[in-house]
Structure prediction request, 321 residues.
Amino acid sequence: MYKFTHVNATSVADAAATLAKGKAQVIAGGTDLMCYMRGMFTLNPPATIVNIKSIPNLDYIKEEGGTLKIGALATLTDIANNATVKSKYTALSEAARKVGSLELRNVGTIGGNISQKPRCRYYRNDYNSFSCVRKNPNGICYALAGVNDEHSIFGAVGGCVAVCPSDVAPALLALDASIVTNKKTWKAADFFVPTGEQINALAADEIITEVQVPTPAAGTKSTYVKFAFRKAIDFPLVSAAVVVTSAGGTVSSASIALGGVHGAPRKATSAETSIKGKAIDATSAEAAGAAAATGATTLALNKYKVQITKTMVKRALLAVK
Prediction:
């Protein structure tokens, strides 16, 4: 493991000041960061780990002013089990429940889940055996001509075809969430932009403090479905978060986001258009699923993801009919 100095932050401002000095990273649950440190697979390891669990009052879950507000240190277990989240923001509750194992969810936080590192086997290879483009601007994406069965079916981002590994991210995108930091408030669509070794656009001294989700309109249902080779622990190979508002048995609005298929959670706008104005049934759900795969450009080993994408969207829509 890389050597590092561990410091306990007393406030968000204190943590940000340490990060601003350079070669430092935040730790909360640590379920991803400790693997990153132990594997020694980066050119740029942090010399300082800034513990933000020592900052009080960042683990709340509450509704306020027509908005669900979740502190960055709220655990995935607490989010999954919260009665308000389960009943009104169901896709987020289900996404949180599908992360890893119970033990991981008990310590993993929402802030950490949307800030984890890429899961590509080349990026994650111990001792930086593959100095890929995510770690080295002069590197290459080894997956393009290598083992790419788990990679993007919607092209590369910055030359990299690794996918966003977060379960929570597509649920936040579909629910039109915002991510609040010590610097600004991000819309989810702008936040999940792969940047260097990150799956988001955070600056080096930027810290997530809160996630905000607007209260859904009356008649809204949502869900999150996930395909992985193992039922527990695995990261999503394909996932779909669906938020549908219906009136008189017909879909008046739809928000559909895909996970595990691109470098960022991806809005399936063609699927949204396909289902809007229709009643949800097997035929309309299948058509929307087919539309969700519009524009897919597969690699040598991941063509199977196209059919799974269609199926996940169909299943999610039928679950909220």
Observations:
- The CA atoms of residues 281 and 318 lie 7 Å apart.
- DSSP finds twelve helices and twelve strands in the chain.
- The radius of gyration is 19 Å.
